[in-house]
């Protein structure tokens, strides 16, 4: 008998002047049914102090479908960024956020949404991040907050904050992965045509697929190289090897590859080795030396060093955390 997985309940907190982009990100990650592709089910609700339409910048309007009381039944509360970072947030919103956190519900804020959590007092004495251009303002207006200047997102006591714009996508995908595993996050990321892994000072646990051909790779040669490299990860690949597959000189290949992916060939290859190891750690009981061999690290020691540098954890600790979560 097949057990039907109950949907994860996500509360989007809505009030006037929230940013439409952040609302769209939240809706795209948790508001689209992708269960046929293997993604988990979600129930996303737009929660506001009342059911009146919520005005957003740019002439857009959001229609709430739940009152703030629904935060009490949510599994995750997400706060979009705001247009005016110093404007007072409606007191019912601040009260609902404090109540949700006190009940143990994870609370996440995108970009300038950190100012909302700060007004609620939830960031006092805690680490938080916002858009780099807003970090001095957050420090000045809320000196009790420990503002982290250079992270994509951070977590402190069940409260998540993210830097600007694209980092909100990073955080949303990371929250999916934390709750449901790498495969769910990768499925959603591919549907959004976004790279679900970006290197930063905060450890990232998100896979990324090989980019598709684009206008910088009209022949598809670079995409073909990436696909072949993924099939041969267990081999000690070099830039010269991949350049030969593309019929280019190593210097020309490296230049075109970096322009098309934003990563050097070696950086990209390391990303893929780590991502492959993550999958095997999550989904199999293979011993560490075998995973290191299959992913091209050469040895368990080398794999452990790369995990520590990139993910701030060890392969064994990663397996314990994510196999248990799965």
Topology, element by element:
Elements: E1 8-13, H1 20-30, E2 42-48, E3 54-56, E4 60-62, E5 66-67, E6 76-79, H2 91-102, E7 107-109, H3 113-119, E8 127-128, H4 135-141, E9 146-147, E10 153-156, E11 159-162, H5 166-180, H6 182-192, H7 221-231, H8 239-246, H9 250-261, H10 265-283, H11 288-294, H12 300-311, H13 315-325
Parallel strand pairs: 1-2, 1-6, 2-5, 6-7, 7-11, 8-9
Antiparallel strand pairs: 3-4, 10-11
Helix pairs in contact: 1-5, 5-6, 7-8, 8-9, 10-13
Structural class: alpha/beta
- The ordered H/E elements are EHEEEEEHEHEHEEEHHHHHHHHH
Low-confidence stretches: 199-215
Distance between the termini: 20 Å
Number of helices: 13
Side by side, the strands of the main sheet go: 5-2-1-6-7-11-10
What is the number of strand segments? 11
Walkthrough of the structure:
- With 326 residues, the protein is α/β, with parallel strands linked by helices.
- Helices cover 44% and strands 12% of the residues.
- It contains 13 helices and eleven strands.
- It has helices at 20-30, 91-102, 113-119, 135-141, 166-180, 182-192, 221-231, 239-246, 250-261, 265-283, 288-294, 300-311, 315-325, and strands at 8-13, 42-48, 54-56, 60-62, 66-67, 76-79, 107-109, 127-128, 146-147, 153-156, 159-162.
- A seven-stranded mixed sheet has the order 5-2-1-6-7-11-10, sandwiched between helices. A two-stranded antiparallel ribbon has the order 3-4.
- Helix 5 runs antiparallel to helix 6.
- The two termini are 20 Å apart.
- Mean pLDDT is 88; it is low at 199-215.
């Amino acid at each position: 008998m097949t057990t039907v997985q109950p949907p994860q309940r996500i509360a989007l907190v809505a009030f006037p002047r929230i940013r439409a982009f952040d609302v769209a990100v939240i809706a795209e990650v948790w508001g689209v049914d992708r269960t046929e592709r293997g993604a988990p089910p979600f129930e996303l609700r737009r929660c506001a102090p009342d059911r009146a339409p919520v005005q957003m910048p740019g002439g857009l309007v959001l229609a709430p479908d739940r009152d703030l009381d629904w935060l009490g039944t949510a599994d995750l509360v997400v706060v979009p960024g705001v247009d005016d970072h110093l404007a007072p947030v409606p007191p019912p919103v601040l009260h609902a956020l404090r109540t949700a956190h006190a009940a143990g519900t994870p609370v996440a804020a995108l970009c300038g949404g950190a100012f909302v959590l700060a007004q609620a007092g939830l960031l006092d004495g805690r680490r938080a991040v916002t858009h780099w251009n807003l970090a001095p303002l957050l420090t000045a207006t809320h000196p009790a907050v420990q503002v982290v200047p250079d992270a994509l997102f951070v977590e402190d006591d069940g409260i998540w904050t993210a830097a600007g714009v694209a980092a909100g996508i990073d955080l949303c995908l990371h929250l999916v992965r934390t709750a449901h595993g790498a495969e769910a996050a990768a499925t959603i990321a591919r549907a959004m045509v976004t790279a679900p892994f970006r290197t930063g000072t905060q450890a990232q646990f998100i896979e990324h697929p090989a980019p598709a051909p684009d206008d910088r790779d009209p022949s598809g040669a670079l995409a073909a190289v990436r696909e072949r490299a993924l099939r041969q990860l267990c081999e000690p690949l070099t830039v010269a090897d991949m350049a030969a597959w593309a019929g280019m000189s190593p210097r020309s290949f490296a230049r075109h590859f970096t322009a098309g992916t934003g990563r050097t060939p070696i950086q990209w290859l390391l990303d893929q080795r780590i991502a492959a190891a993550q999958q095997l750690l999550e989904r199999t009981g293979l011993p560490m030396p075998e995973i290191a061999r299959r992913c091209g690290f050469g040895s368990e020691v080398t794999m452990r060093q790369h995990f520590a540098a990139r993910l701030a954890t060890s392969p064994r600790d990663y397996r314990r955390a994510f196999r248990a979560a799965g």
